[in-house]
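Much of what follows relies on a compact textual record of a protein's fold. Think of the row as the fold of the chain written in a discrete alphabet. An example makes this concrete, so a full record is given next.


***
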Amino acid sequence: QVHLVESGGGLVQVGDSLRLSCVVSGRTFEMTNMGWLRQAPGKDREFLAAIAWKGGNTHYADSTKGRFTISRDNARNTVYLQMENLKSEDTAVYYCAATTSPGPVQLVLPGDFESWGRGTQVTAAS
């Protein structure tokens, strides 16, 4: 089991950039892929991006390609989500998640994630 703690959220202006961090602890050697998802009020949880913990391959939702970048620093046990040109519709709670399920990162589904952080609020206001 792994423990995930997100940080970096806050109130920003539309058009601003923001970088979220997720520090991972515990049985990290069992992790295969990690991801970022978000949930806006009244909406379902939405997959944003995933990264292979060991190889670093990435996978993005179509809605985030070009604006969001996922990366990881294994030495720091940290995964990042860099977000550019934030829009009001990006307002949500952002979650970091991890899975031990085998398989390439391109095939990760939201239901594959077994461990979740508590989330960090991002609010983009005009």
